[in-house]
Design a protein that fits this description.
This protein has 927 residues and is mostly helical. Among the domains are: 30 residues, no CATH class; 66 residues, Alpha Horseshoe (Serine Threonine Protein Phosphatase 5, Tetratricopeptide repeat), CATH 1.25.40.10; 84 residues, Tetratricopeptide repeat domain (Serine Threonine Protein Phosphatase 5, Tetratricopeptide repeat, Alpha Horseshoe), CATH 1.25.40.10. It contains 55 helices and no strands. Helix 13 packs antiparallel against helix 14, helix 15 runs parallel beside helix 17 and helix 44 packs antiparallel against helix 45. This is PEP-CTERM system TPR-repeat protein PrsT. Pfam families: TPR_16, TPR_19. InterPro entries: PEP-CTERM_TPR_PrsT, TPR-like_helical_dom_sf, TPR_rpt.
């Protein structure tokens, strides 16, 4: 049955059956054989009708599912149609059915390359010198090296192919791609034309020609080439995808949708089609739809690197930087020098505050691409955040030289100049940025504010008036004008400018607040309140306005009204984070710990990925004395804020309070990893190493600090601490004196005092610290130390004298008041109980205050009141052995010997050493 017109193959068969109907009816209804279906599929393929060819092959495989030739051809057709995932599946089935690797590997390699599986190509497809398909294998390996970034190895193999055959299109195209990567577009174009001269209808050559034109910004010419491919092969899904990509790049989303639909008709399950649909969704801001599409692609083809890159960008847009980073790192592992992925990774690190990581990403890229303005801007912003203003200025200067008309670059350069204190040069850059883009509000505002700070009021007003002509409806400009008048003490003009801002936007809060401040300065708080309430009447649920009213009430010493506004703001805006955080903080300040904690827990549950409510919850737990809960919350916070050294220092402090010294040392060292020059961390590290008995390690840290910062006292002070721990007070004294010589401050004199006392030079110690306090009577910390040392030495009268002097200057110092009560009690002074009651009245939820008051009551016979106070103190500070001992004693005095025994047994089992251990053992022996 000859078929001169393959497109009419099915029709030809129908006509033939009709002609033979009378003579051989049964034969006309027979199903075509597998061989016939495969032959027809081949003819469809040659005419570019891939969809029809695939249908024929699927029919063939229904009848003969184990036909390896049909499987192989179907796999090759899927490659033609742009569906590499289905291609790989069919080709591997052909291999399993007995097809030889020589037959299958060239097509299988193409499928893997289309999915970005370069490593699999190199691992599975090897050179076989005796094979007639060796050239195809060389081409595949060369393209795999090329895709993986090994241009040198790829070039060797492509040149080998050219030596074998001078017109080898694969080699010419491969070398063209290398030329493109090397920034030689003219050379690439010449190689592509050589390939097309021998193979004018080669689809790969045409496609690369279109891609090169697109890279050169010649979109119309590129579209013409892709359309030429479609004239040759109307069902070519890849050409439709290429056109869709062109349209997406140009922002022509409707046209892109049409091309994607056409591609989907030819290859409905193709990962390439799914990918371009996700790209369109991403560009149109439908990030969730893009994410779902990409997840579908990656479930089917986990190694499809374009989708791995795109899902990183989508996750970043969705506000999920950790997930974005995971995908980008995976993509960069396969494409180590990919600049777009690297920029996104750097921006994630910048947002998290990991500045060293940003520079580690950017600086190698800048060596290869020194003129990349985005990289230079990223480097500038990173140095700016690190407060290295000179380096930031250098980067911004390079960027602005490359793009002299880019206003944002001149604005950024101005900020770096301001950081260096070069306000004149900063103003010049801001003026240039404003001249380049007068509509850029931020730059003009920055210029006006800089002039205002420099007290160049006329220039500031002139700048704002020029902006006013272009942006007459912007209340910010009039608010700033009011600020300039206010700086000149022109209160009438200031008020008029603020009123003008409110005329444009009656709810403009900065102007409202400025007017309220003017009202307060004129002793008219009621007018300020009415102003805010009038605005609130226009927007009754405005959380910022209710917050402003709360602040006003607080400033007028009206906490009840302030609380009412905060509670209303949170109630009327149940999903809003800011008013609820403020309310919880207010509860905390007011001592309403349970309310604060309940609200913080609710906030954290409803905003699990937001650090603010978690930080608030941790702070409340810490303030309430629930250190274990605070540690857990701060640990979660550290997983959200991975670049905060101070967060790890807070965790270390809690671990120390819980006596977890090993954990604290680990946390301190994490902080030092994030910020190697963090002095507080090095000081704490030495203290922890000393507690651990690791004197040599502690000494190494101290001396390392001395070498790096000989101008600071810290290194010498820390070495002195090590010597004190080794019971070498005289040697330590020399180091402390050296530190004190660098910086004559109270804390260092305290160390000198400690060393003198430990060396037995008590008179000299007292003379030194006494002289210091006479010369520096405001140094409450040193006086507090002296009082505490007297208390420890049981010099109660001397301790009382120092505490009383301290409280004359700082009457609300709760620790001093509590210690004074204890000192009075030990000295049998009748002022003990009233002083303890004063401390309790100030902080009824402080476990140390509760313990002191209860113990004084207990010693004075007030067991009935003492016991519940100690029970509460034990709940608030469950890990304090002293409070636990006092509770055991109170239980014994109350007559509950069984509970007292249980309490003391638990205490002694859990704590091997604490000051009152002997007393606790003696009491237990009586029970």
């Amino acid at each position: 049955m000859p078929r001169h017109l393959p497109a009419l193959a099915t029709l030809s068969r129908s006509v033939l059956c009709a002609a033979l109907l009378l003579g051989a009816q049964a034969g006309c209804h027979r199903r075509p054989s597998t061989v016939e279906l495969i032959a027809e599929a081949q003819q469809y393929r040659h005419s570019g009708q891939f969809k029809a060819a695939i249908i024929e092959l699927k029919n063939a495989l229904q009848a003969a599912p184990d036909d390896r030739a049909a499987r192989q051809l179907l796999g090759e057709l899927y490659i033609d149609a742009g569906d590499p995932l289905s291609a790989e599946k069919e080709l591997r089935r052909a291999l399993a059915l007995g097809a030889t690797p020589v037959q299958i590997m060239p097509a299988l390699g193409k499928a893997m390359l289309m999915m970005g599986q370069t490593d699999k190509v190199l691992a599975e497809i090897r050179l076989a010198p005796s094979s007639p398909e060796q050239s195809e294998v060389i081409a595949l390996r060369a393209n795999a090296y090329l895709a993986g970034g090994d241009l040198e190895q790829a070039q060797v193999l492509f040149e080998l192919l050219l030596r074998k055959r001078a017109d080898a299109a694969e080699a010419l195209l491969g070398l063209a791609r290398i030329a493109i990567a090397g920034g030689e577009p003219d050379k690439a174009a010449g190689l592509i034309e050589r390939a097309l001269a021998s193979h004018p209808e080669d689809l790969d050559s045409l496609r690369l020609k279109g891609d090169l034109l697109r890279l050169q910004g010649k979109s119309d010419a590129a579209a013409g080439v892709y359309q030429q491919i479609l004239r040759l092969r109307p069902d070519n899904a890849i050409a439709h995808v290429d056109l869709a990509n062109l349209h997406i790049q140009a922002g022509k989303f409707a046209e892109a949708k049409r091309e994607i639909e056409a591609a989907r008709k030819s290859a409905p399950n193709s990962v390439i089609v799914l990918h371009v649909q996700a790209l369109l969704d991403f560009r149109e801001g439908r990030n969730k739809a893009a994410l779902e599409g990409l997840q579908q692609v990656l479930r089917a083809a986990p190694e499809h690197m374009p989708s791995v890159l795109l899902i990183g960008a989508v996750q970043l847009a969705l506000g999920a930087p950790q997930q974005a980073e995971r995908h980008l790192l995976r993509f960069l592992e396969a494409n180590p020098k990919h600049i777009y992925a690297s920029k996104m990774l750097a921006s994630i690190a910048l947002k998290s505050g990991d500045l060293d990581k940003v520079l580690g990403i950017i600086e190698p890229l800048l060596q290869a691409s020194p003129d990349d303005i985005e990289l230079l801007s990223l480097a500038g912003e990173t140095q700016m955040r690190a407060r290295r203003f000179a380096q930031a200025a250098a980067y911004y200067e390079r960027a602005s030289t490359l793009s002299p008309d880019a206003a944002p670059l001149h604005a950024a350069l101005a900020v770096s100049r301001l950081g260096m204190g070069e306000s004149v040069r900063a103003i010049a850059e801001l003026e240039r940025a404003t001249a380049l883009d007068g509509k850029q509000t931020e730059t003009g505002i920055m210029l006006a504010m800089t002039l205002l700070r420099n007290k160049e009021y006329d220039k500031a007003l002139a700048t704002l008036q020029a902006m006013e002509q272009q942006q007459a409806a912007n209340p910010l400009i009039y608010n700033l004008k009011g600020g300039v008048h206010l700086a000149r003490n022109q209160l009438g003009e200031a008020r008029a400018a603020f009123e003008q801002a409110l005329g444009l936007d009656p709810l403009y809060l900065p102007a409202l607040e400025n007017l309220a401040q003017l009202d307060l300065s004129e002793k008219k708080p009621e007018q300020a309140r009415k102003r805010f309430e009038a605005a609130l009447a226009k927007e009754p649920k405005s959380a910022p306005l209710m917050t402003a009213l709360a602040k006003l009430a607080s400033s007028q010493k009206n906490p009840a009204e302030a609380l009412r506004w905060l509670e209303r703001g949170s109630r009327d805006n149940p999903e809003a984070l800011a008013p609820a955080v403020l309310l919880s903080s207010y509860y905390l300040q007011a001592g309403e710990i349970n309310k604060a904690l309940t609200l913080a827990q609710k906030l954290q549950a409803s905003h699990p990925d937001n650090a603010d409510p978690l930080a608030l919850r941790a702070q409340i737990e810490y303030s309430s004395g629930d250190l274990a809960a605070a540690l857990n919350s701060y640990g979660k916070l550290a997983r959200l804020q991975t670049a905060s050294p101070m967060l790890h220092m807070r965790i270390a402090a809690i671990q120390m309070a819980l006596n977890d010294l090993a954990g604290a040392l680990q946390s301190v060292r994490r902080a030092l990893t994030l910020q190697p020059d963090l002095l507080d961390a090095e000081v704490t590290e030495v203290a922890l190493l000393l507690a651990k008995g690791s004197h040599a390690e502690a000494l190494a840290v101290a001396r390392g600090l001395q070498k790096r910062h000989a101008e600071l006292p810290a290194g010498f002070k820390l070495e002195g601490d090590v010597l004190m721990a080794q019971n070498k007070p005289l040697a330590a004294l020399k180091l402390y004196e050296q530190a004190y010589g660098i910086s004559k401050i109270g804390p260092l004199l305290v160390q000198v005092h400690r060393a003198l006392v430990q060396a037995g030079k008590n008179q000299e110690a007292s003379a030194r610290i006494g002289a210091w306090l006479r010369d520096n009577p405001q140094d409450l910390s040193t006086r507090f130390y002296l009082a505490g040392s007297k208390l420890v030495d049981k010099q109660y009268k001397a301790a009382i004298d120092e505490y009383e002097k301290l409280l004359q200057q700082d009457p609300n110092n709760i620790v001093a008041l509590n210690d004074l009560a204890w000192a009075y009690q030990q000295a049998k002074d009748k002022r003990a109980l009233p002083t303890a009651e004063r401390a309790y009245a100030q902080q009824a939820a402080n476990p140390a205050v509760l313990d002191t008051l209860a113990w004084i009551l207990l010693e004075q016979g007030g067991t009935a009141r003492a016991l519940p106070l100690l029970q509460k103190a034990s709940t608030l500070a469950p890990h304090s052995p002293e409070i636990a001992y006092h509770l055991g004693a109170a239980l014994w005095k109350s007559g509950d010997r069984k509970a007292a025994r249980s309490q003391l047994e638990k205490l002694l089992a859990a704590n091997k050493e604490f000051p009152s251990r002997a007393d606790a053992q003696a009491l237990l022996a009586q029970l």
